[in-house]
TrEMBL record:
It comes from the Eukaryota. InterPro entries: Phytyl_CoA_dOase-like. Its cofactor is Fe cation. This is Phytanoyl-CoA dioxygenase. One of its GO terms (molecular function) is phytanoyl-CoA dioxygenase activity. The keyword Glycoprotein does not apply.
Amino acid sequence: MYIFKQPGIGGEVVPHQDNTFLYTEPLSCTGLWLALEDATITNGCLWAIPGSHKNGLKRRMIRDENGTHFDRPSPLYDQKEFVPLEMKSGDFVVIHGDLVHQSFENLSPVSRHALSLHVVDMEGCKWSKDNWIQRKTAPEPLYVS
């Protein structure tokens, strides 16, 4: 995903865990986030709760006969637990799939663009049949060892 966080209007991203959206058994989602511009508190940098990846997955987004929805309400998080992850352009962060993270709107006069990629392990892991996003054909490994 190319994330455009434009000056004064770039939207907020509510607290979430990436495994909520990209669920495998066992869990394997890893987020890769590259700052294409400086990410600061005022222009909407990432914020995370340190150690929250150790507390397990709190909810999932699923698709079933009732459509696409979350399987339970969003937990309430204490905003005092979040710490900013300010980054310089070119910095790269790896995000555990259970880490609770968010970002706020861009209140500054400068943009904050980033590139985000989410990967899952398909060797030894199973893509859930009730994930909100499904492929028509199974993925094939890029490399076979």
